[in-house]
């Protein structure tokens, strides 16, 4: 059982999810939370990672750090492999040495992105991009150790960092009409909600791979329309399909048309489902307002 004074390591602490994981842990009374980012620890240096982890001896490692620039990943596959596959390997090996739990964040991009049915955790992985492939390879390294959680999520937005919601708000202040993809379907995920689930998980031994996102499915175009409604910006959304969008903006990585994920494993394991994405978006706007 995780005690309030146990050391806890959070990677990617300056990113969207890592920032909220640290906040959630502290808000629950955990007193020895160590958040690192690339400025404090080079996770691609195997020796540095293992030395740091063995010295800190954390009870739990929340691994949020990753290469997430999907398009740019296509240009630097070797570097992305080091970050998205080898870093989880180093952390998992270190966790095994000290009998720590590792909780590693993955993505809907590990699935094929085809069809219309929600993907289950044990469905065949068939990623179509460098980002997706390297995240899948990272999963395999983590899965080699019993005391692990792999949490696949999608369309993340949070207060700390850049995301689709903030981009739409910024564009909506200078544009009256915006083209947004309408045939990619998935679930937006509020990092504040996801961080609560992750901390819940870390206090159990219900190890394994889970899908986790806010409830409900939508297209990027529908999501954008909801953002402008919350922001009270009079922007007209022009829906475009992916093929049309790629022609207009070439050089992109292949994106999944179907990012729907089945979350029934959360229920069967006794974990709560996250609130609807619409509810999450409303609360995110309240957080944005409070942060001004």
List the helices and strands and how they pair.
Layout: E1 8-11, H1 16-27, E2 33-36, H2 46-56, E3 60-63, H3 70-73, H4 77-98, E4 101-107, H5 130-143, E5 148-153, E6 156-157, H6 164-172, E7 177-181, E8 185-186, E9 189-190, H7 191-202, E10 208-211, E11 214-215, E12 218-219, H8 220-231, E13 236-240, H9 242-248, H10 264-268, E14 274-276, H11 277-290
Parallel strand pairs: 1-2, 1-3, 3-4, 4-5, 5-10, 6-9, 7-13, 11-14
Antiparallel strand pairs: 8-12
Helix pairs in contact: 1-7, 2-4, 4-5, 6-8, 8-11
Structural features, described:
The structure is a single chain. The chain is of the alpha/beta class and 292 residues long. The strands form five sheets. Strands 2-1-3-4-5-10 form a six-stranded parallel sheet, sandwiched between helices. Helix 2 packs parallel to helix 4, helix 4 runs parallel beside helix 5 and helix 6 packs across helix 8. It is globular, with a radius of gyration of 19 Å. The mean pLDDT is 97.
